[in-house]
User: Fold DNA-directed RNA polymerase from Amphora coffeiformis.
Amino acid sequence: QLIGSEPELINAIALSMEEPNRLKIQTQMQALRYIGQKIRNRTSSLIGGGFYRRPQAPEDEAREVLANVVLSHVPVENFDFREKAIYIGHIVRRVLLVHLGKMPLDDKDYYGNKRLELAGNLLSLLFEDLFKTFSKDLKRQADLVLSKPNLAQAFDVTKTIRPDTITNGMINAIATGNWVLKRFRMDRAGVTQVLSRLSYMSALGMMTRINSQFEKTRKVSGPRSLQPSQWGMLCPADTPEGEACGLVKNLALLAHITTGEDNIAPVERLCRDLGVEDVKRLTGHEINSTFIVFLNGLIMGVHSRPRELVKELRTMRRNGLVG
Assistant:
């Protein structure tokens, strides 16, 4: 029902229902047990920087993975997966509509489909990796000391701890510019660079530089060309010559990047006042027959008159009422 009730959609997903019918999976607990058995047995592995996790039943393992790993940005309260189910149903519906030729493909160069990896994100990943390494080393040293049968003196954590692990790791990464984090499968060079102080404009241009992950040797015009969606966010003129042309861009002088931690409650209340209905109160048929409204990557609700909603929000933004 969340995917759709059209005959072509039902025929497209009918084959996916054969295996559950053959295995007689009819309840949520049976489905969780089936998923839990398919997940790799990680109960004996070290996680979270070296802390041991107790073995779990397959149902609990599957429930935890569905809550914290699959679409981890969608919140789950008291293992209520309705919001996550609506999100997955919307994804499957769009994929099937594109496959059936009823919806165009998303533009990979559209700037709304991109995200910027800022310095704060990179530093947080580096600190998390170093802190987990620090915790793992501390646990190993504590196990070696406390496992001795004839322990003459009390365990002193200050003598076991290595105070320079995090400091040296961050200094080395920032000095060399190499972000090598095996835990997150990240291996990048040139993350940090010496700031150019030749002039005020050169320093400003270097601090607002955006590097694309696209390979510079490939002769593809799509990622290099100007996109209308970049208007007001990226400078249309400041880009280097040669193979990096169009791939290295700069933020506009008045551009401002918001993070996921910014307060979105006023924007959500404003959208509710403009007629956005809560998606939790609607059935699958009602969701698919209206227009879905997203806020920071989450489904906030649905609206039956999207043009009026967009017009009102744009008017408020241009009058300075919405940031």
In short: DSSP finds twelve helices and nine strands in the chain. Residues 7-99 form one domain. Residues 42-52 have pLDDT under 50 and may be disordered. The longest strand covers residues 298-303.
